[in-house]
Input
Amino acid sequence: MGYKKNLKLASESLSKIKRMGIKNTAELDDYIKEKLKISSCGEVYAIYVLADYYGQKVGYELMNAAFEKLATYKHIAVWILKDNERAIKFYEGYGFRFDGTEQEIKLGTSNTELRMIYERG
Output
């Protein structure tokens, strides 16, 4: 993305923030925390297991390692492609739940990702 396009996007974002009545970065931070309802959140970026290794607990070992690395976080987020039922079941098995947040991403074509959150008790 070019400099001028980045500048335009930043300007549009600032205009939107001003229209929301947010006056400074502290208010913006408060708004984001309230909107997300997450104040301290780690993220599992991706876990991929080759089909040849399905059923061998490789994904569980990777997830356990991620949980160890993210031990200081109360919340852990992961984004799942909307139609990836296998991944959804995997994360639900760990206690992740959908929080209603979704986003569109481009992976050659447009795709919808859904956010799941794990909350430590």
Q: What stands out?
A: The beta strands are 41-44, 75-81, 97-107, 109-119. The chain has four helices and four strands. Helices lie at 3-19, 25-36, 58-69, 85-93. The CA atoms of residues 6 and 17 lie 16 Å apart.
